[in-house]
């Protein structure tokens, strides 16, 4: 089985870090600076039971309506059109207006996995459940996986959940 997965989210949530972690290579540029990934970056992962094609997207640009941002958004929309699963990546404990705008752009019928990244930064773990409830009230998610892309924590759970969706 081959699964096509788009990784979406506002800039800086850790999409490129996650892609690198998923494929075990530094294929996508990771930066503190937003908008480092201007083009779609694709990575392939082959496991015994499944193969994945991951597409790291430039963050949806929700602030300025200029030509470059429009082109980038179109690129993300195209990436979404023909994938099996969408990873919607956000930061643990922090759901912003930009996150909400990206969420609104996801097709209604898409299988969306809510990836709550940077859990290593969440000092008070008791905040995680109410945070999940808050985000879950905005849309139905096929799966919800908290993880740390940087440290690799729980990334295997994301892979297992995705295989189950193919
Ligand atoms: P992108 O814009 O969504 O592709 O985000 P990047 O992958 O470029 O990451 C943005 C910043 O967040 C970088 O400084 C990363 O090192 C950092 N980052 C990514 N994942 C994690 C994580 O799991 N934990 C922490 N603490 N930082 C992370
Ligand atoms: Mg990136």
Question: What does this protein look like?
Answer:
This protein is an alpha/beta fold. It has a single domain, classed as Rossmann fold. 31% of the residues lie in helices and 22% in strands. The protein is built from five helices and six strands; from the N terminus they run βαββαβαβαβα. It has helices spanning 15-23, 67-81, 97-105, 128-136, 155-163; strands at residues 2-8, 41-46, 51-56, 85-91, 111-117, 143-146. The protein has a six-stranded mixed beta sheet, with helices on both faces. The model has no long low-confidence stretch (mean pLDDT 87). The structure holds guanosine-5'-diphosphate (GDP) and magnesium ion. Magnesium ion (MG) binds at residues 15-16, 28, 36-37. One of its GO terms (cellular component) is plasma membrane. GTP binds at residues 9-16, 56-60, 117-120.
């Amino acid at each position: 089985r081959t699964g096509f997965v788009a990784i979406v989210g506002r800039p800086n949530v850790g999409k490129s870090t996650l892609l690198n972690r998923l494929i075990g290579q530094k294929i996508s540029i990771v930066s503190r600076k937003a908008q480092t990934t201007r083009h779609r970056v694709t990575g392939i992962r082959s496991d015994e039971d499944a193969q994945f094609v991951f597409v790291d997207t430039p963050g949806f640009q929700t602030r300025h309506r200029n030509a470059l941002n429009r082109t980038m958004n179109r690129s993300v929309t195209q990436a979404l059109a023909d994938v099996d699963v969408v990873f919607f990546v956000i930061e643990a404990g922090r759901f912003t207006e930009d996150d909400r705008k990206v969420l609104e752009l996801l097709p209604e019928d898409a299988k969306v996995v809510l990836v709550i990244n940077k859990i290593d930064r969440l000092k008070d773990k008791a905040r995680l459940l109410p945070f999940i409830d808050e985000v879950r009230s905005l849309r139905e998610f096929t799966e919800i996986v908290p993880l740390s892309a940087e440290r690799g924590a729980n990334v295997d759970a994301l892979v297992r959940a995705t295989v189950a969706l193919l």
